[in-house]
Amino acid sequence: MKAIIPLAGAGTKLRPHTYTQPKALIPIAGKTILSVIVEQLLENGIHEFIFVIGYLGDKIQDYINKKYPELKCHFVTQNDRKGTGHAIWLTKDIVNDDEIFIVYGDTICDYDIKAIINSPNSEIGVRRVDDPRSFGVAEIGDDRTVFRLVEKPLIPKSNMALVGVFKIKESQSLYKTLDYCIEHNIGTIDGEYHLTEALQLMIDDGAVFKAFKVNNWFDCGKKETLLETNAILLKGQKNSLTYNYQFPNTVILPPVSIAEGCKIENSIIGPNATIGEHSTINSSIVSNSIIGSFAVLEEVVLKSSIIGSDAFVRGMSQSLNIGDNTDIDFGK
User: Fold this and answer.
1) Which residues contact 221 (CB under 8 A, 6 or more apart)?
2) What values do phi and psi take at 249, rounded to 5?
3) Are 227 and 242 within 8 A, CB to CB?
4) DSSP secondary structure string, 137-157?
5) CA 87, 82, 184 angle in degrees (round to 5)?
6) pLDDT at 330
7) Quick check: helix, strand or coil at residue 202?
8) What is residue 30's three-state secondary structure?
9) Integer Cα distance of 326 and 293 in angstroms
């Protein structure tokens, strides 16, 4: 089985951070979004990966090669962002007849991965949402069989949203369907080919898909929900973390994640704070925030903030959304 992770999106809802950093490499709970996904799959027996890259794709390729040097992986470039269906279609020459496990690059979910991998059926991950109009939606029978998939319906007939996790047994059937969709321009929304349309054509042709409900679906798409996800994941890790941080005149309020090489003094860190490697924090209070690597914070009070790598912030108390390589001095 091969895993496919589409990563070519520009992450516009997380700008300014995604001007210089792929969304999948934004730090969260001591890891990156991408490393959480990869390690979930590795731990459950998937060892071959196909990464569909585009915008800032060289950074993703460098990150994977450095962090997982033994990983069997392939990189496919999606030069034109034509949607998830097009991204999966680009991988057809690598997949051959293998089963595939698709996880969207901004999707972190809590579910029994091994059970889905070992299922005799093709499987589609779903989660109940209040307003499904912004998602792909699955209509499901009593026996978990999916009988209809619709992308962003104006009048949804179901509130079960697709979370972006798919296990496909009939991979060649999927690629034939994607060929047909692209050749005949079927299912395009705003110029993009969505995977849901190809899967629906497979269902119409007799393919059987079962829906499985994920326990949690962590949204990493925009600032507010990214911070919520960071807090949830930190709390989930707190029983396995040991807080032996030794920083002068500093109070640590768990759960937190502080990377190697940080210099912190006269500060209060936490709760729900992620600090990137080699950052320097002096006379500051940081809570419910994500701080990138090599950032410098002096005499600040930060809450509900995201500070990019190599940023410098001095003397203020606000909620910020600051990108990489930013230099801000509010004075004293």
Assistant:
1) 13, 14, 23, 106
2) 50, 40
3) no
4) EEEE-TTSBEEEEEES-SS-S
5) 95
6) 64
7) helix
8) coil
9) 12
Quote the CATH superfamily of domain 2-221: Spore Coat Polysaccharide Biosynthesis Protein SpsA; Chain A (3.90.550.10)
Collapsing DSSP states into helix, strand and coil, what is residue 130?
Answer: coil
pLDDT digits (tens, 9 = 90+) for 299-331: 999 999 988 888 899 886 566 677 776 766 665
Q: How confident is the model at residue 226 (pLDDT cuts 50, 70, 90)?
A: confident
Helix (H, G, I), strand (E, B) or coil at 318: strand
Beta bridge partners, 296, equal 280, 312
Q: Distance between CA atoms of 262 and 264, rounded to whole angstroms?
A: 6
pTM, two decimals, is: 0.85
Strand 188-189 to 192-193 pairing: antiparallel
Return the CATH class of domain 224-329.
mainly beta
C-alpha of 294 from chain center: 23
Look at residues 150, 259, 147 and name the one whose alpha carbon lies nearest to residue 203. 147
Phi first, then psi: what are they for 89, rounded to 5°?
-60, -35
Residue boundaries of the structural domains of the chain: 2-221, 224-329
Tell me which residue of 47, 66, 68 sits closest to 58, measured CA to CA: 66
- Specify the 3-state DSSP secondary structure of 126: strand
Q: What is the DSSP string of 280-310?
A: EEES-EEESEEE-TT-EEES-EEES-EE-TT
